DNA sequence: ATGATTTCCTGTAGGC
DNA sequence: TGCCTACAGGAAATCA
């Protein structure tokens, strides 16, 4: 499932291919989920030049020269791939952008269709999607700022971190990995953390995300780099997907239970409740 | 306000 | 091999 490190990898991967290029061709599928509508998005993209590509939380934002922004959220199974125009499309391609001066096409695949595409001004995108309610960017915030964003809430750690409203970009994998590394039980209330625990959590969030980006993200199931390569951070997962195995820190068995509606992996010994 | 539950979807894995 | 069911989950909507 694409989270902050995966989106960051996608942004870095497609930016050199599309920045400064004009969109000369748009293809879309009937089931493409787009705001305000697939037809409006396709029409609005044609002829526009992409001036920059950046990331906010798990949203990819391609800024155009006409004041509008193409926003892509990969949802669960979305992929953005650069492929040659002549290369046959695989199943579930929802959008393809062809550019001037290159044979490479930007293709959006999304089998499970939890992804989203939108074209509008920043203000429009913020009102149409969760983009407007995003919390701070963990990688451009200090540990103190991250700690402050988490500290006041009465919510459970797992719930708050999945919500995107306090801190943006973490999903199920990185929340579990971060909480394990900080030695915190996912059901702990945010406002119950000591100063040291908050500080440790904030530092681990940054550390995990930075390392994951360095390793090209986690490929679990669908996620691929825009060039088709897989990430390798899954090899560095300490708890995610390792239920039943031995904790890398102690002798205990890692467990998985449903918390905040998500499969949650942790060590009952290293991450004590209360 | 919070939290639990449901919805959207398809591919994959498991049982038989 | 094939059929069936359960499960995975990001974000938004719904309900208690």
Structure write-up:
Helix 1 (4-18) packs parallel to helix 7 and helix 5 crosses helix 6. 28% of the residues lie in helices and 22% in strands. The relative contact order is 0.15. The strands form three sheets. Strands 2-9-5-4-3 form a five-stranded mixed β-sheet, with helices on both faces. Strands 1-7-8-6 form a four-stranded antiparallel β-sheet, with helices on one face. The chain starts with a helix and ends in an 8-residue tail after the last strand. Strand 10 and strand 11 form a beta hairpin. It has 274 residues and is an alpha+beta fold. It is built from seven helices and eleven strands. The structure holds a DNA duplex (16 and 16 nucleotides).
- What separation lies between the terminal Cα atoms? 30 Å
Secondary structure: number of strands: 11
Radius of gyration: 19 Å
User: Biggest sheet, strands in spatial order?
Assistant: 2-9-5-4-3
Query: Number of helical segments?
Result: 7
Residues in helices, as a percent range = 25-40%
Strand content: 15-25%
The helix-and-strand class reads alpha+beta
Spell the H/E element sequence.
HEEHEEEEEEEHHHHHEE
Q: How many strands, what sense, and barrel or not for the largest sheet? A: 5 strands, mixed
Shape annotation:
elongated
* Average pLDDT taken over every residue: 92
Catalogue the unreliable spans: none
Summarize this structure as a short list of keywords or feature phrases:
11 strands; DNA-binding; alpha+beta; 7 helices; single chain; 274 residues; elongated
Summarize the structure.
This protein has a five-stranded mixed sheet with strand order 2-9-5-4-3, sandwiched between helices. Strands 1-7-8-6 form a four-stranded antiparallel sheet, with helices on one face. The chain has a two-stranded antiparallel ribbon with strand order 10-11. The model has no long low-confidence stretch (mean pLDDT 92).
């Amino acid at each position: 499932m694409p989270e902050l490190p995966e989106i960051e990898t996608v942004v870095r991967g497609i930016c050199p291919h599309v920045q400064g290029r004009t969109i000369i061709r748009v293809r879309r599928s009937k089931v493409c989920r787009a705001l305000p509508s697939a037809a409006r998005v396709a029409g609005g993209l044609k002829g526009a030049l992409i001036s920059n590509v950046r990331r906010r939380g798990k949203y990819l934002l391609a800024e155009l020269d006409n004041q509008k922004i193409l926003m892509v959220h990969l949802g669960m199974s979305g992929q953005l791939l650069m492929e040659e125009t002549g290369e046959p499309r695989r199943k579930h391609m929802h959008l393809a952008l062809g550019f001037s001066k290159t044979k490479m096409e930007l293709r959006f695949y999304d089998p499970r269709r939890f992804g989203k595409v939108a074209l509008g001004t920043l203000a429009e995108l913020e009102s149409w999607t969760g983009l407007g309610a995003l919390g701070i960017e963990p990688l451009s915030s200090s540990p103190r700022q991250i700690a402050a964003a988490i500290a006041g809430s009465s919510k459970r750690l797992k719930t708050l971190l999945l919500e995107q409203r306090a801190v943006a970009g973490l999903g199920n994998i990185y929340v579990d990995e971060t909480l394990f590394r900080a030695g915190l039980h996912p059901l702990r209330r945010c406002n119950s953390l000591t100063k040291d625990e908050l500080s440790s959590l904030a530092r681990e969030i940054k550390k995990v995300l930075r390392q994951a980006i360095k390793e090209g993200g986690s490929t679990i199931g669908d996620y691929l780099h825009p060039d088709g390569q897989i990430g390798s951070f899954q090899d560095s997962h300490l708890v995610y997907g390792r239920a039943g195995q031995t904790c890398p820190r102690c002798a205990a068995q890692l467990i998985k239970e449903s918390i905040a509606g998500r499969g949650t992996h942790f060590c009952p010994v290293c991450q004590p409740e209360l």
